[in-house]
Amino acid sequence: MSxxxxxxxxxxxxxxxxxxxxxxxxxxxxxxxxLSRLASEVPALVVALGMAVVMIGRQIDISVGSIFGLTAVLxxxxxxxxxxxxxxxxxxxLTGALFGGINGWxxxxxxxxxxxxxxxxxxxxxxxxxxxxxGRFISLPEGVQWFGLGQTTGQWTLIAVGLLLVxxxxxxxxxxxxxxxxxxxxxDPEAARLAGVRPGAVTFGTFVLMGALAGFAAVLxxxxxxxVDPKAGGGLELKAIAAAVIGGVAVTGGRxxxxxxxxxxLLLTTINPALTYLRVEAYWEKAIQGTVILLAVVADRFQGNxxxx
Amino acid sequence: MILAAFLVAEFILFSATGRNxxxxxxxxxxxxxxxxxxxxxxxxxxxxxTGGIDLSVGSxxxxxxxxxxxxVQDAGLSPGAAAAVTLLxxxxxxxxxxxxxxxxxxxxxxxxxxxxxxxRGLAEAITKGTATYSxxxxxxxxxxxxxxxxxxxxxxxxxxxxxxxxxxVHRTTFGRSxxxxxxxPEGARYxxxxxxxxxxxxxxxxxxxxxxxxxxLTARVTQARADAGTGYELLAITxxxxxxxxxxxxxxxxxxxxxGVAAIAVLTNGLSRIPSIxxxxxxxxxxxxxxxxxxxxxxGVLMKFLSERRARRQTSATPSTPSNA
Amino acid sequence: xxRLLPILACAALALITGCxxxxxxxxxxAPGGPAPAGKKLSIALLPKSKGNQxxxxxxxxxxxxxxxxxxxxxxDGPTNTDPxxxxxxxxxxxxxxxxxxxxxxxxxxxxxTALKKAQAxxxxxxxxxxxxxxxxxxxxxxxxxxxxxxxxxxxxxxxLCGEEGEFAIITATLTAANMNEWRxxxxxxxxxxxxxxxxxxxxxxxxxxxxxxxxxxxxLGAYPNLKCVMAICSPAVPGAAEAVKQAGKAGKVKVLGxxxxxxxxxxxxxxxxxxxxxxxxxxxxxxTLHAAAALAKGELKPGATSYKAGPLGExxxxxxxxxxxxxxxxxxxxxxxxxx
Lengths: 309, 325, 340
Description:
The complex is a heterotrimer. Chain A is mainly α.
């Protein structure tokens, strides 16, 4: 029971919020808007899952927004030049993985601190993108939106992809050797090394995975609208980190469950529309989000097993 | 050392290719424009020295700027009194970070990420986003635009703060305990250092100086807005790390940080004066700053690796020397 | 490799030091004007931010005028909305030694100090797109006043909604100064003329299309009686339209906004977006540079009542405002003719 205390408490807060909405703003649950709201958060979920893996491995990746933006523009350009989506999707994932690989090499290969490395790649990527695209939108050809499936089917597909990915990654993180290695490296790299795990390889792998997921997320995002905005992905890193932290991932590494991250993101992304539905003025949004993050870490501290070292 | 050479190279390159780069007015501009980020970098340095980080300074700058503006314009306080209150608020905000970090032992990265949103959010809530404050007396605005004894007024403030922090870091027990905490907090605790108090001091100082930077920025731009200081935390961190302070804590110097601030400021200014790249200089200096940061980090690692290898080869070579000779 | 190095170095140096021979030659063009021979006029154009399609189009027009008149055009601006950056760039230009500064001001009062400093050094100053305080510049190239924009937006919205019902605004950020100016005027017009209409909410989209889409979707759900979404930053217009389309409310909820025709063509033609309001952005850049050159050469003097800007013809000057004309409303019937 207490093992899942964090997940349960996030779920409880979420339930409380949803029931308040059910009373004060029942229209929050009307199916069509709810569906499109959930579908539009799937890309953020994919990135948050990657972020959680990186953080469990005791690192952090601030550059995800830039990876996301660069892959979005690259994929958009390819699609606009009549390259078919089934070909663009693996290319986007590959491109993302490549950027992640650069981060991973700098962090794991050279032993540089991830926060500074990814800060540098965030800024470099963003400015390069602005030089390259100058804010120009890219129009996508017909048949790309919703994978050519129509809106409702497309949205369900996105949600299914998101759920499948959480299930898969949550299972893998617990049951595959590679998943356990990440926890091992995150809780104590030296001990992991003595146990025969190569911490460098594991860290490199988490960054490549993060990049690949950011590239994947960029495609999941661009199918939801007929144009690509080169500014897409700005601020995504904060959302992903916040979702992971609220979901119980320890910034000190080695602890956290991906289902918790899923709940954390649900909670985080409910706040903003909830404020709209409850007719709270937008001026308070950032302050409330900051408070929620702080409350989540403070709660983490008082949690039974809060043995963050 | 490398950084100082880089700075000299910048000067040579820009005075050769940049238009009017060495004009005294331009050098004054560089100093004026980098004061606020320089101040933030100066207080970010001790925080990073302890192995921590403070992402909230830019947001706090915005919050303090609108508070200061509101007090002067709406409450009719004199700039002096308003400044005192603003500095106090900065200290309290820094204290709030410190409380969460030291009492609850929460990681600084995540605490200050939360207050990063919180402080900016409060600034927006106070102004409802729309209010800006621009009615300040000229005597106050002189802080941002006048010169005193040949130097921009704010440069004197900067020199004073830099002096105090240099002494703190390099000549007092504060600096020694910050380094010790950065190396090993547990070790520092066993050695009998008041770890919590010393840590708290670094974060409170960051808050107070962020408030000071807010006042100086307001005087220079003659306006206070809720989005003042957006992104400054990144520039400050970049300057500190570029200046040779280890992001893991434990080692670093204030003069290195100052060089880091200067290197970035000169780069941005100089690039915008080279005719053929003027149009893209802002983006380019962003890209170069990022690349420079990575190069500085990688260079550091490489040097360490090489010197270790040399040391290893020397020790292993010594016994075999006779047979070779 | 060793042989390659000097070549690379030369190439790098050439790249850095000059953008071509035209730079070093004394001004061969500059028709008619009494420009001092031997030195090209150097005009600095300040956008509110770079990497923004609106200002990219302004620059296009400015480039055209610069090429025609033989002017050196310096285009530089902040890459984000940092309010202090514009001041720095202007102060930087003063020491760079430019002849004219033409600024689109993000901060009406804030930038005045820097512009006045430039004037004191003998640099001519004019503003375009959004003005500073009148004493800090000679002329304002006025494509549409904040009042003109706010009123046109509100009037168009009222017409679309039949002068009654709820509407919401999507803005870039809550701190964007010009949009706050527009919002003030929208609200003033609303109070004055349309008592049966109600502004229910204003949401920021961080200048991102996808965020505007999400915010609009939320608004549509939260306010089922919403009749109109007004998007006042350019990425928000297609974002809002996409949300309305996805909610199946195309035509029922009207969309209008300030945006570029190209980004909105599909929505306007399919009837999701009813009206896109903007002026001819390239003309604004062209006129600004044209007027700046005339100001430097002494052809445009305070007190003038009209100005002839090449192919744009004779334009009226009201006070110190050079008027480009009224904002233009792009609709289904005319949007196809425009490409920017």
